[in-house]
Amino acid sequence: MNQYSLSEWQQKAAALKLEGRAWIGGAYSDAENNATLTSINPANNNKLIDIADCSEADVERAVGFARAALDSGDWSQLAPAKRRKVLERLADLVAEHAEELALLECIDMGKPIADALAFDIPETEHCLRFYAGAIETHTDEVLPTESHVLATVTREPVGVVAAVVPWNFPLMICCWKLAPALATGNSVIIKPAEQSSLSAIRLAGLAAQAGIPAGVFQVLPGQGQVTGQALGLHTDVDCLTFTGSTQTGKRFMAYSAESNLKRVWLECGGKSPQIIFSNCQQLERAAAAAAAAIFINQGEVCIAASRLYVEDDIYEQFLQLLLKEAKQYQPGDPLDPQSRAGAMVDQLQFDRVVSGVNEAIAAGARKLTDAPLIVNQSQGWYLNPTVLECDSNNNPLMREELFGPVLGVCRFSGEDQVIALANDSVYGLGAGIWTDNLGQAHRVSHQLHAGMVWVNSYADGAITVPFGGRKQSGFGRDKSIHALDKYTDLKSTWIDLSH
Domains of the chain, with CATH numbers? Predict the structure, then answer.
């Protein structure tokens, strides 16, 4: 990472040329009714730019372009090797513009510039390269039948794909959906979150520069209840992929039923548990991981391990280690390369977390961290890392996703009890186990109701490994070769060769 100072990053941010228009049909475009939303820098509450607030008319226009591009075959029927080269070129451009894209994530969403440059942008680039390489490995099949029959299964683009993406990792999660959908020949419409649309808008220009044809990749910023709903209800959208809250995910399922039964892929909320068993000999490492699992990205992480269960025998010892680690995540200016946490994304999310903490304390939770929850400063939305001790899973903090730097801690006594506590949730996204007993690691991980389980680590991953959950955390899977199947239809062809 380039070791710029805070003032140097501030100068670079001030020099950015911001673009807030939608990308429709191969060009930047105002919303049809000229409506706009104001993009705010959460670090200082200053206006960044007005962004297009797309309406149903803009959705109609974009879907029309997407369908025409699909039918033309310029992308959908392009040889896989040629699609690969275009996606590789887009990955090159992301790498070339890494500082610009990282700055957009930083000022638009509030994440630390160090995290954006060291993680978000490299992961975005790697995702594009992975699916570029995967294009030519996604093979069709010839199936065994009688000798006079040729039976094949071919994979065809599902069609027009709408991707509704969240505000916490805007560009990375956008490409988790965009890259496999483009790789398999679809036309893709991205609806970025209202709070963090700038990087997706910029990516659209880079995609055109890379050679993606007009109409194949479009970006429609706007309000979820308007733009997102219109995409969900549109009968010419064949597939909708979504990352966000469970409540909104349920709406998209309903929209599918109300419209054309479009396939819907959901990655929704989480309330992930992390378990520290007394036989763990790596308590300092486990404490560091437990803190990172909830306080990185200001706790605005779907797989944040926001429930921590610590076995009785090591409870007090572990808490001291945890509280020491929590102090490392006091928030600072997102443009300061020394900041390990930044600003909450907006006033609404800030207020939601503050209200949730107050509710938890009113229900009996005890605050263990010394610093006040709210950082005392006049501008921006900053919260200190906060640890609350809870007597049981009945506390709302142990049940409801806050999406902020707040950790609920409970003690437990025994394997069976903690498995029951961990599974006592409507969510099932991730879970973590810290144990030095291999048998226990296998036994407990098998019994946890989660789409992803980490043993002696948390939230590690690779583009080759599927990402997704169970229960009300949804059933979609981003990342890995399996994601390609989400964006293709299987066609069985039976050819009688006897005549």
Answer: 6-268 (3.40.605.10), 273-463 (3.40.309.10)
Q: What is the 3-state secondary structure (H, E, C) of the chain?
A: CCCCCHHHHHHHHHCCCCCCCEEECCEEECCCCCCEEEEEECCCCEEEEEEECCCHHHHHHHHHHHHHHHHHCCCCCCCHHHHHHHHHHHHHHHHHCHHHHHHHHHHHHCCCHHHHHHHHHHHHHHHHHHHHHHHHHCCCEEECCCCCEEEEEEEEECCEEEEECCCCCHHHHHHHHHHHHHHCCCEEEEECCCCCCHHHHHHHHHHHHHCCCCCCEEECCCCHHHHHHHHHHCCCCCEEEEECCHHHHHHHHHHHHHCCCCEEEEECCCCCEEEECCCCCCHHHHHHHHHHHHHHHHHCCCCCCCEEEEEHHHHHHHHHHHHHHHHHHCCCCCCCCCCCCCCCCCHHHHHHHHHHHHHHHHCCCEECCCCCCECCCCCCCCECCEEEECCCCCCHHHCCCCCCCEEEEEEECCHHHHHHHHHCCCEECEEEEECCCHHHHHHHHHHCCCCEEEECCCCCCCCCCCECCEECCECCCECCCCHHHHCEEEEEEEEECCC
pLDDT per residue as tens digits for the range 347-381: 999 999 999 999 999 999 999 999 999 997 668 99
CA separation, residue 427 to residues 272, 283, 302, 348, 454 (Å): 8, 27, 11, 23, 16
pLDDT at 150 over 50: yes
Cα–chain center distance at 164? 10
pLDDT tens by residue, 198-222 = 999 999 999 999 999 999 999 999 9
Catalytic site positions = 267, 302
